[in-house]
Specification:
Layout: H1 5-9, H2 11-24, H3 26-29, E1 39-43, H4 54-62, E2 66-68, H5 80-97, E3 100-105, H6 107-118, E4 123-129, H7 144-149, E5 176-181, E6 200-205, H8 216-226, H9 258-263, E7 266-268, E8 274-276
Parallel strand pairs: 1-2, 1-3, 3-4, 4-5, 5-6
Antiparallel strand pairs: 7-8
Length: 280
């Protein structure tokens, strides 16, 4: 289930190309549905900070939202400062502005999902970008060594357990959208998808892991999801406009289809995960 080294090595050049795609499609992106003025907190990935989400937050501002960075510096994992700051951020924003939406990129998405579970009345929805919330084995991501380097600073697992084993948790109590890419070179895309229930969905795009936050397909999908009415009963699954459907392959959902797993050289594990099938 671990991403191939080749894909990992091509992450940076692919990300650079996706910056160009963002610039090329800015006019198209302006045609997305405008927001209702809601406030949105954006959480960055491992070893990243607010500077990595500037393009995303600027785009949301242009559509009428009020996006917020997390303001904690570099994301080195769930330290006491980071956990307390995120909770305070959610509580402060919702006290002042009412329910907010959360967007989390990679590790930030794991935080966002746990915050959504902790504050179901204060969070409208959670959108994750290439977030391996279904990770079974930590070594299946190329970011493991970096994450483990700071493990001694992290809070106890019973307080904020990341990466988590999603199959052990209750379903998300609020709408959640998982945006993922099968060409992800950092985390296994199989760990980034929702099981479909109620207001949970998956959206597949063709992007690198570190370019996900400014890829035009991701931005359009985020804008579309944020424009949904606040009432969960009015939630509708994502449907790309006809002219943009080439951006969005048919998404896969959890649990993965047995035939697909065999074709991909994978086999299902007894605990609900998937692993590389043995080869002769």
């Amino acid at each position: 289930m671990r991403p191939s080294l080749v894909r990992g090595l091509t992450e940076v050049p692919r990300m650079a190309g996706e910056v160009g795609e963002y610039a090329a499609f800015r006019r198209v992106l302006r045609k997305a549905r405008r927001g209702d003025g809601q406030h949105v907190m954006v959480l960055p990935g491992l070893m990243a900070g607010d500077y990595t989400t500037v393009l995303l937050r600027n785009y949301l501002s242009s559509l009428g939202y009020h996006p917020h960075g997390w303001g904690v510096g570099r994301n080195i994992g769930p330290t006491r400062q980071i956990v307390d700051s995120m909770r305070k951020g959610v509580e402060t924003l919702t006290d002042q502005h009412g329910p907010i939406s959360l967007i989390g990129w990679s590790l930030g998405g794991l935080y966002a999902r746990q915050l959504g579970r902790a504050y179901p009345d204060e969070v409208r929805q959670v959108i994750t970008l290439a977030s391996p919330f279904r990770l079974i084995h930590r070594e299946d991501t190329l970011a493991t060594l970096v994450f483990d380097r700071y493990r001694h600073l992290h809070v106890a697992a019973d307080e904020l357990d990341v990466p988590e084993q999603e199959h052990l948790r209750d379903p998300m109590p609020i709408p959640t959208t998982a945006i993922y890419s099968r060409s992800d070179g950092i985390v296994p895309w199989q760990a980034c998808i929702n099981e479909l229930y109620g207001t949970a969905e998956n959206i597949e795009i063709k992007a690198s892991h570190i370019g996900m936050g400014h890829h035009p397909a991701a931005l359009w999908a985020i804008a579309d999801r944020l424009a949904l009415p606040a009432a969960p009963e009015q939630w509708l699954p994502f449907e790309a406009p006809k002219g943009l459907r080439r951006w969005y392959p048919a998404p896969l959902n959890w649990p993965l289809d047995e035939e697909f797993l065999r074709d991909a050289g994978l086999e299902r594990e007894g605990d609900g995960g998937v692993s590389e099938a043995a080869t002769g």
